[in-house]
Amino acid sequence: MSNSFIKLLVSQLFANLADIFFRVTIIANIYIISKSVIATSLVPILIGISSFVASLLVPLVTKRIALNRVLSLSQFGKTILLAILVGMFTVMQSVAPLVTYLFVVAISILDGFAAPVSYAIVPRYATDLGKANSALSMSGEAVQLVGWGLGGLLFATIGLLPTTFIILILYIISSFLMLFLPKAEVEVLESETNLEILLKGWKLVARDPRLRLFVSANLFEIFSNTIWVSSIILVFVTELLNETESYWGYSNTAYSIGIIISGLIAFRLSEKFLASKWESILFSLIAMAIVTLTILFFPNAQMFLVFSALLGMLSQLKEVPESVFLQETVEENNLVNVYSVLEVISTLAFSVFVLLMSYITESFGISISFWLSAICLMIEAILIYIRRDYFK
């Protein structure tokens, strides 16, 4: 891997770890202050809405600012905002939830600008897209695996102010590392209006059959994945496995471990995976559908953890070829526009599909939800097989 990509990887690792610590800390602090579930639930909702709005506007930002500068400036902005919030925590006994919400929104908007850019910049820095995407996925999942538990532990043991100081230090390190990212500009026609720039990614997706396939397949997968949302999978854990709610956390850990293991495999064998993109994706989808139904037919608490890890492994074996396919299909100058569209579609689809799957689970039972999940994976597999020539 190139030095440029390693700088990106390490800076993102520090930033992502700090982001998770920030969310855990703010959620816990809001709950302690308000004692309200609704007030606490507003934090992830505000983060989601803010990131969604930022994703829509990313093309306008990259029109004026180079991709590497978007990453460094957004991270620097987050650092300044957090420093102000830490100062308020230091001089005040408590900060009102409304004020905290404003900081959450501002930081999440900046983070929303960075998300599509961090994907779009990978081909600029990476010499091996397979290894690069595997490394990013592994580091991201490792941070998720460690971050939530460690963030909660830090808050519980050392308190609000020391934890936010640690987050601030991580932000500063990430901001410093991002200053050394090589320049990566997006060429924009001077004659293009802001509206044309905003619509550019949508037009690219609508016109290119390969991108339409990617979006269609992704929608089926998003719907399938909604069964793993806490409110839905908890029904399976409590009703069919007869376990407590904490067991869902164990399955999440097993899933993350599976992704990391599979990421290592994909990293070592990236050339073989990239030489057989559609075969890797097809195999993973069919295997995931089979494992999903196996979980339903043979509800066993111990095996559920094993199957969760297996699903994590299979999802990663599919994700790496998909990421490389997208990065090779779209021109570098248009990649950030397309990623912006994908972020918007994914966010909207996930929100709608979670509500739909929750209704189905409540009305018809968890078994129907698992069947629908497996069917969606099989439909996606059929789409990939029919259009396998797109991957050559």
UniProtKB/TrEMBL annotation:
A single cellular component GO annotation: plasma membrane
Q: Does the keyword Transmembrane helix apply?
A: yes
Q: Which UniProt keywords apply?
A: Cell membrane, Membrane, Transmembrane, Transmembrane helix, Transport
What coarse category fits the chief subcellular location reported for this protein? Answer: membrane
This protein's record includes keyword Secreted: no
Pfam families given in the database record: MFS_1
SUPFAM superfamilies, sorted: MFS general substrate transporter (SSF103473)
Output the InterPro entries linked to this UniProt entry: MFS, MFS_dom, MFS_trans_sf
* Topology in the lipid bilayer: Multi-pass membrane protein
Where, per UniProt, does this protein localize? Cell membrane
Write out the transmembrane intervals: 12-32, 38-58, 70-92, 98-122, 213-237, 249-269, 281-314, 334-356, 368-386
**Domain Major facilitator superfamily (MFS) profile: where?**
210-392
The GO molecular function terms of this record are: transmembrane transporter activity
Q: State what protein this is by name.
A: MFS transporter
Where does this protein come from, organism-wise?
Streptococcus oralis subsp. dentisani
The taxonomy runs: Bacteria, Bacillati, Bacillota, Bacilli, Lactobacillales
